[in-house]
Structure prediction request, 682 residues.
Amino acid sequence: MNRFFVLALLGGAACAGQRPQVLTPVRVDSTPATGASASSATAATTTARTTMDDPISRIDRMEWPGPNDFRSASGAPGPGYWQQRADYTIAVALDTTQQRVSGTVTIRYTNNSPDSLRFLWLQLDQNLYRPGSKGSALFPADSRWGVRGFEGGYDLSNVQVNGRPATVKVDDTMGRIDLDQAVPARGGKAAITLTYAFRVPEHGSDRMGRDGTLYEIAQWYPRMAVYDDIRGWNTDPYFGQGEFYLEYGDIDFSVTAPAGYTVAASGLLQNPGEVLTATQRERLARAARSDAVVPIITQGEAVATRTAGTKTWRFRAQNVRDVAWAAAPDFRWDAVNADGVLAQAYYQFAKAGKAWEQGAEQTAWTIRNYSELFARYPYPQATSVAGPVGGMEYPMFVMVHYGNPLDDPKSIFGTVNHEHGHEWFPMLVGSNERRYAWMDEGFNTYINAFANERRYPGTNAYPFYQTNWKGVVDNRIDSPLMTPPDRIDARALGAIGYRKPGAVLLALRDNVVGRETFDRAFREYISRWAFKHPAPGDFFRTIENVSGQDLAWYWRSFFYSTDLLDLGIDNVTMRQQEGQTYAEVALRRNSSVPFPVRLRLRFADNTTQDVSLPVEIWARTDRYTALVAVKGPVTGARLWPEGVVPDFNSTNDVWGTPPATNASAASTAGGLSGDIGGRPLP
Prediction:
C-alpha cells in the first residue's frame, strides 16, 4: 500500500543553491501510485550478493561483538575492555651482497586477557615467499600481490621462551609456540627470543622490496598475532592482498648497514652522534624549528661512495603496531617542521625526480591538515621514502612511488597524502585490516577527499569514487564491503576496499546523518578507539549513538550487500484541494536499497523548491507518492540535486524539464571546523 504526505510549503520556493529543507509530513487519504517500467539498473540488482553468499564466510558474526563488559552497546570500549601488549627489541644487519637481512628479536609479551595462554601464535609474513605458500596459490605470480617467482621465507633458530628452548610449529605464514607453562591471565608475561634471517625479495608484494642499491624493508621480523576478546587468536594467514592486525607496544631496533648507507625508519633516531655528521645534525635541529624545508643531505652530497665497514643505526618507536625502514647510499634527505612534528623525505633524485623535492612539504601539509580535521597526529616524526613500492604505510613511515612524470609534484601528492592518512587508520585506530579493508583503506579514502579538496579547491572526489565503484559493478566483480580483502577479486580491490566505502561514507554524511553530526560521530569513534582494536560493530554503534539514528538499513544495504540504490520519479501530477495547489510526486524504489529522498521541484518561472522525505517511507512499500504543497504548476523534478548519492540509474532521477544540480558543490562541504576540528585526543 502506498502512502501520501502533505508537505507544508514553508517560506515559499527555495533557490536552487539552498540545501534541502526538511518539511513536516502530515498524513492524508491516498490512492495507489501509478507504476513504471523497471529501470535499466534493475538488471544489475538481480545478481546482487550478500556476505552469506561467501561459502567460507564466518557464521559467528564476529564483526558485531557484544555488547558486554568488554564492548558497550554505545560503541565505546566497555569498563572491562582489555588488549594485549607486545614490546620488541630487534637487532639486524643488512647484507647488500647477499641481499639478506639477519638478526635477533626479543618479544616481551603481556597477557592482559582474562584467559591463561598455553600457546602463542607468531606472524611469519616472509613465508609468503616459500615455495607452495597459500598466497602463491591465490594470486598469479606476476600480479601486484604475487611472489614474482621469488623463493625466500624465514630461517628461524635458537627459539626460547623465558630462557628455555622452544619450537615454532610453522603453518604457512603463521607459527605456534606451545608452552611448558601457561602465560597467566591479567598481566602475565612471556619473553620470546629467536634468531632469524630472510632474503629480500625484489618485489615484496608491493609492500617492501629493493631497487638496485635501495632497500625498503617491512614485514621483517616475527610479530605477535593478536589475541582479542572477539576471536581469541587471530590467525588468518598472510596471502599478500590482505594487510595486517597487530598489537601495540614499544619497539627498539637497530639496523647495521654498509657504512656509506643512510637509514630512514619509523621512530626516532637514538644515536645521531654516531651516524650523522655534525653538519647533518645541525641541519636536522634547524629543520625541527623551520617552516621552510631544510636539506639534511643535499643533492651534491647525495652520492654513493664506497666506504669500508658498517654503521649501526638505532631507533625507538613508542606505542606503535609495527616499524619499517629503508636504506640507500645516495639518499637526498629533506626535513621541515609540521606543528612540532618532524616531516621528512628521502629519495634518490635520479629515480624519484624533481617531484620529490616537494615530498617533505607534502608530508608536512598532510600531517597538519589531518591533525586539524580529525585528531592530533600522535607521533614525533613522519617520513616519506621514494622507491619501487607503489604505496605502503607503517607507523611514522610510508613508501611512495617515484615521480611520474618525474618533475610533477602532483604525481606523488595523492599517494603521499593517502599513505600518511593511514597514520590515523590503522596506526592510531588499530582495526583488523586482514578482515575489514574498509575500516582502514575505506576510512582513509574518505578522509583523502577532504585533503584533496583542501589542497586543490574546486575538486570533488565523490564522482571519481562512484565511477570506480561502477566499474566493478559493470564488470560483475563486485563484493560486499564486509568481504575479507583476500576474497575480493584483485581487480576490484581498489573499488571495494577504497572508493566504494569512501563514497558510502560521504553519502552517509551528506544525506543521512548530516554533516556536522557525522563529523562529531567520526571524531568520537577515533577518540574512543585510539590505540585500541575496534570491530565493525563498534563503528556502527558509535555512529548510531552519536547521531541518534537507527542505521541498520544503511549497514545492510551498503556493507552487507552488493545491491544498488535505484530510486526513480515515475510521474508528477497536479491537484487542487481546499484552495491549495499540490504536486503529486510518484516515486519508486527499484531495488532492495532504501534511501531518504532529496527532491528538487522546478516551476515555470525557474524558481525551485526542495523537498526531503525520511527513509521510513520505504518501510512497507516500494512505491510512494508525496503530496507537496506548491505555489504553482511544477514543470520539472530532480532527485539528488546535491549529487552525493550513489544512485546508479540517473535516467529515472528526473521528470519534465528538471532543475539544475549543485554540480560544483564539494562533497566535503560543511563541518570539520570550529570546535569540531583540531582538538587533541583526550
In short: The first helix runs from residue 42 to 45. Confidence is low (pLDDT under 50) at residues 1-46, 673-682. The first strand starts at residue 4 and ends at 7. The radius of gyration is 28 Å.
